[in-house]
Amino acid sequence: MKVSDFTFDLPEELIAQDPLEDRSSSRLMVLDKKTGEIDHHIFREITSYLKEGDCLVLNNTKVIPARLIGAKEDTGGKVEVLLLKRKQDNTWETLVKPGRKAKVGARISFGDGMLVGEVTDIVEEGNRLVRFEYEGIFEEVLDQLGQMPLPPYITHQLKDKNRYQTVYAKYDGSAAAPTAGLHFTKELLQKIKDMGVKIAFVTLHVGLGTFRPVKVDDVLNHHMHSEFYSVEEEDAKLINDTKEQGGRIISVGTTSTRTLESVADETGHIEAKSGWTEIFIYPGYKFKVIDGLITNFHLPESTLLMLVSALAGKEHIIHAYEEAVKEQYRFFSFGDAMFIHP
């Protein structure tokens, strides 16, 4: 299976640069995963496709303002540090640009010394381990100094940090938003609950590895980066009860999907636990838990496009994406949504 099998032509002007004022007013393409039939809607009309007894599963991770701009203490040279993964108390695995300025022992100052980082090691793929020194609480310092780590294809400045955050974000830890959830408002979620749809949460802290380009020709040779997940007992029970009662599991986003598929046994039974997952889902994968998926439109040749192709079939997905381009849908993080209908 070649990476080039998962490509399509995307005009640059269709990459959404700004979030819509009303989250739920984005467009929604509904794709029947069995027939490939396509319908066009507004996102808030997702309620037409949900029914009593369904369970919607949301990823409640919270994006941290992980992008820090600082200066080397000795030369004053500008350095950008992106926090990827907390290793222990004050040490993080980071991506540093430019890397040549981040040799072991280099010290970087942020906010006139409010936060100082020292490079302690160079690890896989040139990432740096950085130990931070600061007064007070790290999260509060980060909130003052950090910027939201928007993907590189978004070139506009984000006016409101909260727009790169779901309305139900709870647990700090992501370097990127679970963007399928950005379309929900509190009012829409309440309406869905009032319909008798159950809402369960999982946590998967999204790492940048999810969005890294696939650099091998053969899909099977690609290695996913590990991401931390957690599923609580009450949410596992809600999902298991839904399945036992014949209800459908509708996953919101590829991150929720990867979490559910990571914690399920062969029968689709969910276990409450936490850990690290490197699950890579591509065509041929047999889904154990989810029936439907709400997701955004993904990058060509990405692991996310491979995941949705595993659920709905590559031909259906590529055709749907070509239709989305023709109909001028907005793509990627701040773009429109697709519901892969069971």
Number of helices: 6
* CATH fold-level topology of the largest domain: QueA-like
Tell me the Rg in angstroms. Answer: 20 Å
Shape: globular
Annotated CATH homologous superfamily of the largest domain? QueA-like
Reported CATH architecture of the largest domain: 3-Layer(aba) Sandwich
Number of domains: 2
* Average pLDDT taken over every residue: 94
Task: Describe the protein's architecture and organization.
The structure is a single chain. This protein is of the alpha/beta class. It folds into 2 domains: 242 residues, QueA-like (3-Layer(aba) Sandwich), CATH 3.40.1780; 79 residues, Thrombin, subunit H (Beta Barrel). The radius of gyration is 20 Å and the shape is globular. It has 6 helices and 17 strands. A hairpin with a 5-residue loop joins strand 1 and strand 2. Helix 5 packs across helix 6.
Write the layout of secondary structure elements.
Blueprint: E1 27-32, E2 38-42, E3 55-59, E4 61-63, E5 67-72, E6 78-88, E7 91-97, E8 107-110, E9 115-122, E10 128-134, H1 138-145, E11 171-174, H2 186-194, E12 198-204, E13 227-230, H3 233-244, E14 249-252, H4 254-263, E15 274-277, E16 292-296, H5 303-312, H6 314-326, E17 337-341
Parallel strand pairs: 1-17, 3-12, 3-14, 4-11, 14-16
Antiparallel strand pairs: 1-2, 5-6, 5-8, 6-7, 7-10, 8-9, 9-10, 12-13, 13-15, 16-17
